[in-house]
Amino acid sequence: MIGYLNEIVDRDWRPVSRWALGAWLIFYGWFLIYAFTQGHGYLFIDSANLVVHEAGHLLFGWLGPTLGLWGGTILQWLVPLLLAAYFFVQRQTTAFAFCMFLPLVTVGDPEFAEHDWHAIFSSLGVLQYDTRIAWTVRMLGWCGMFGTVLWLMLQSLVNGGPQGGACKFDHLPRKCYKD
Hints:
7 helices
């Protein structure tokens, strides 16, 4: 198993064409500006997040009330992580980078609905720290989004630049070759 994982990690990334790199960087730049200017507002991507989140409650609800409560968040985190893992294994740079990037809605009786995080933080005894936790998660999210863009640019440069070619960077100096 370790050998298989090492083989996956050692594979070369597929080169990114100049136009694809430019298009992705424009998209990421636009999205970061859009997300920043929306502040605490609703982003267009939240509609997809909402579907995945609510599906997590239904899916994990079969495993008991605690996992049912946490299921929305678990699946909301799991889906992008699994997509990122898939694209990492496939060595698709731009697809991998894309993966690195709510109002109260319920699928049950609205009279018995409660906000997930209120219930989770209450059960963990950390409700009084909710704004600190939210700020920390928000900052980690921004760091992750900026890190994704920087990673895409760095990966493109390390892999022979936007015009193509592939590099291994396990050794210094790195050895590059054209496909």
